[in-house]
Amino acid sequence: MSNSGSGPDGGPDGGVARRGLMLVLSSPSGAGKTTISRALLTGDDNLTLSISVTTRAPRPGEQDGVDYRFIDRGRFDAMAKAGDLLEHAEVFRNGYGTPRAEVEAALAAGRDVLFDIDWQGTQQLGEKMRDDLVSVFILPPSTAELERRLHERAQDSAETVRARMAEASEEMSHWPEYDYIIVNLDIGESVRQARSILEAERLKRDRQVGLRNFVERLRRPQ
Amino acid sequence: MSNSGSGPDGGPDGGVARRGLMLVLSSPSGAGKTTISRALLTGDDNLTLSISVTTRAPRPGEQDGVDYRFIDRGRFDAMAKAGDLLEHAEVFRNGYGTPRAEVEAALAAGRDVLFDIDWQGTQQLGEKMRDDLVSVFILPPSTAELERRLHERAQDSAETVRARMAEASEEMSHWPEYDYIIVNLDIGESVRQARSILEAERLKRDRQVGLRNFVERLRRPQ
Hints:
Two copies of one chain form a homodimer.
Chain A: E1 22-26, H1 33-41, E2 47-49, E3 53-54, E4 69-70, H2 73-82, E5 85-91, E6 94-99, H3 100-108, E7 112-116, H4 119-129, E8 133-139, H5 143-154, H6 158-172, E9 180-183, H7 187-202, H8 211-219
Parallel strand pairs in A: 1-7, 1-8, 2-7, 3-4, 8-9
Antiparallel strand pairs in A: 3-6, 5-6
Helix pairs in contact in A: 1-7, 5-6
């Protein structure tokens, strides 16, 4: 069955038309979120990563429209005020946000959008788009393993790692706000689980907006 | 991650303790439900088929405790009256029902139970066990294909097939009562989709009853 939503009541191969969904992955840093996101995006033509707008300057190597859409403060504030951002936040006096129009267009066309955001962004998305939102929280398998990953990655001082562990603890306190929880014991298994969540959510009755017409045709005597 | 729920806060391999779920598959006959059920049960040690009780006599080859638990009318009526059946129905003056005790024990132990029942049974399960219920409706890809499958299977008269098509149409009118809808275009793909639904539902936050303790331990400084 097709995951795309074009055609009279369905996809090009006879599947049923579907509304897209918003898949949020959150986790403390070091729990495997980035690896899982990349794996999901690879080999799934129907899933695209949401590109945030930001007021901060591009860093070396960052591309406009790929890593972020870089906009000025005036435009950012105007978008926030007009309700054109599904979620937004200030980090070190820079604005970051998710533009509404692109997401709405994707969902209406039956395409799914992946978000790599924290619990605060997830809460804001949930207030505006609850029915379209599928939220997944990824937990590390143990405190020791999280600490090891943070060390390995950052080569940081013990103090920095301690500060990150405290941040991780804070982030993890929000697990009860998520629909699904993956404990990342094994990255391959966690990727498989995330794919199953995405696939299952695509099959939810209310997302398959072409079903009523499809079943009407099935039930009509030939 | 383990799907079983033994151990202090989790499964034997360090996973999180989980409450089992009730997976219902319904479809008009000829849509592929039996094939999908068998495929799900094969190679999934944590899923078992619910065995119904019935007052009808065993048919040649049927085994007590495997195909059904055969009980007398007095016992059946007593179970129904006492609320010991999660759902029950009369078909050609025989009683059929799902005993509550076995299902409750399985769910508490973190094991999942598969039900091959119609929309009436599904409605009754939903009234009693809504939080544990995951319901999937399987649709045929087209009227012509359903008719072909009914012909092939039954070698029946045109009249019998017409009667079955009418029954199928009636059954299909209940698709809006189900959580997930699979259009069975390809049996291999449909099996894969049913497996994804089962896997995803196992990862739902509220089913992972050991999570609170697990996260408490993660958040405690070492």
